[in-house]
Amino acid sequence: MGSNHAISLQCPANAPDPDALCSALSAALETVLQDAKSTRHIRQSQTPPTDSSQTAGVDTLRLVLSDIRRDRISGHLTWQSGDGSLRTGPEVALDVMDTALSAKMYPRFARGLLQASPEIIKDLSD
């Protein structure tokens, strides 16, 4: 894996405000990659919830949502490791009280997803 090629970030299209969710995850990933001194760049795309394909020759990081409600979002990340095996991070949830879930809460969810799977950065920045 070279340090100058793209990471394909695939986000679900079934989330409320999917563009905001993908942007939040992309921004969080950019920050983590910069901290790791990686020069990789991120290419975003939306995927239907049933699509599980990986793009050949491209490192892919995918957000898989398991629960979306008015006051909760939960999911996990999947990615391909350096040896080509598919890896799955732990389930992360964001619950809100006294309000509805909104796009302004996505950055916290995105950071939580990446913090729960620190091995992503090793696998994607090699």
Tell me the structural class. alpha/beta
User: Low-confidence parts, pLDDT < 50 over ≥5 residues?
Assistant: none
Gyration radius, in Å: 14 Å
Q: Tell me, what's the shape?
A: globular
Key attributes of the depicted protein:
six-stranded mixed sheet; 3 helices
Describe the structure.
The protein contains 3 helices and 6 strands; from the N terminus they run βαβββββαα. With 126 residues, it is an alpha/beta fold. Strands 1, 2, 3, 4, 5 and 6 form a 6-stranded mixed beta sheet that branches. Strand 3 and strand 4 form a beta hairpin. Helix 1 packs across helix 2. The longest helix has 18 residues. The protein is globular, with a radius of gyration of 14 Å. The mean pLDDT is 85.
What is the topology?
Layout (H helix, E strand, L loop, with lengths): L5 E7 L5 H18 L5 E7 L11 E11 L2 E9 L5 E3 L3 E4 L10 H11 L2 H7 L1
Parallel strand pairs: 1-2, 1-3
Antiparallel strand pairs: 3-4, 4-5, 4-6
Helix pairs in contact: 1-2
